[in-house]
Amino acid sequence: MSRARSIALFVLITLLFGTAFPAVKTGLAFIPPLLFAASRSYLAAALLLLYVGATTEYWRPRSRRDVTAVLSAGLLLVGGTGIGFIAQQFITAGVAAIIFSLAPIITAVLAWPLLPAERLAGRDYAGVLLGFVGIAVVIRPDPASLLDPELLGKLLFFGGVVVVELGAVLVRRSRAEMPIPALTGWAMLLGGTVHVLFAVALGESVASIDPTPLAAAMVVYLGVFLGVFGLVAYLVLMGDVGPLKANLTTYLTPVVALAIGWVFLAERIQPLTLVGFGIIVAGFALLESREIGAELIKYRSLYR
Questions:
Q1: Helices 271-287 and 93-100 meet at what angle, rounded to 10?
Q2: DSSP class per residue in 51-111
C-alpha cells in the first residue's frame, strides 16, 4: 500500500469519526436516541448484507465461532453504541469524543484476562493508570452533585465505551472466519434490534420523531458514511499499517469534534477537560511505548 494512500485513509477516517459525534448531537434534536441508533444500524446492515449477498457465498455465519462473533458484535459492540446516543443528550460532542479516546486503553485492560497473548506488563500498568487519571479529570465526579445531568451523561458515555470495547475484544477472541463486511452487517442488524427493544422498554415513540431533511441526513450520514465506509476504511488501514498507527486516529478525532462543535453547535469546552485529554494521550503513549520505540527505530534505519 502506498504511503500517499495510507495518509489519505488516515485523514478520511479522522474526519469521518470526528464528525460522528456532532452528527449524533445534531440528530438527537429530531429523533429519540435509541430509535436514532436503530435507524443508523438498520441502514448500515441493509447496505452491508446486500453487498455481501451479491459478492460472496460466505455471507452468513457457518460455525460456532462465527455465531459467537456476531452475538458479541451485535449485542455489545453495536448494541452498546445506543448508550452513547443516550449520553450525548447531556454532554457536548467534544466531551463525548474525548471520553471515547480512552477506548484503546480500555481495550488493553479488557484484553488482559480475555486474550492471553495481550497481557499487560511493566510500564503498561502506569500507562493504564495515567489514562484513567485523565478520564477522571474529564468526568470530574463530584459526590455533592451525582444527579447533575452532565455528570450522568459523562458516566453513561464512559460505561457505553466499556461495553463497546468488551464487544470488540470478544469478537477478536472468537476468531471468526466470516468476512468482516458480513460479520459487520449481521452485527448491525442484531444491534439495531437491541436498540429497538430498549427503545420500546424506555417508552420512546416513533410519533416523537421529527422527520426533517436534516434528521434524515444525519441517519444516512451515520449509517452509510460511518457504518459502512468509515468502518471498512478503518479495517483496511489497520490491516496495512497495524493497530498502533490506526489507533492514532482516536486521538485526532476529538480535535475534529471540538472544532465542529464550536463552529456549528456553539459548544464550549472547559480547559480542564483539555488537560484530561492530554493525560489520556500521555497514558496511551506510555502503554504503547515499546511499539512506538520500535517504529522510531525502523524509521531511523530507513533514513541512515
A1: 20
A2: HHHHH-S--S--SHHHHHHHHHIIIIIITTHHHHHHHTTTS-HHHHHHHHTTHHHHHHHHH
User: Predicted confidence band at 37 (pLDDT cuts at 50, 70, 90)?
Assistant: very high
Q: Which has more confidence, 288 or 24?
A: 24
Distance CA 83, CA 225 (A): 21
**10 has pLDDT over 90:** no
DSSP, residue by residue, 191-244:
HHHHHHHHHHHTT--GGG----HHHHHHHHIIIIIIIIIIHHHHHHHHHHH-HH
Q: Is residue 123 within 8 Å of residue 108, measured between CB atoms?
A: no
> If you average pLDDT over residues 21-43, what whole number do you get?
97
Domain ranges of the chain: 3-121+148-270
The interaxial angle of helices 271-287 and 289-302, nearest 10 deg, is 70
Give, in order, the Cα–Cα distances in Å from 109 to each of 92, 183, 243: 26, 24, 16
All 3 cell numbers of residue 49? 448484507
Full DSSP string of 4-30: HHHHHHHHHHHHHHHHHHHHHHHHTTT
Task: Write out the three cell numbers for 83.
Answer: 448508550
How confident is the model at residue 112, as a pLDDT?
87
Based on its alpha-carbon atoms, the radius of gyration of the chain, rounded to whole angstroms, reads 19
120-161: pLDDT as tens digits: 777 888 999 999 999 999 998 766 666 789 999 999 999 999
Could you tell me the three cell numbers for 8?
489519505
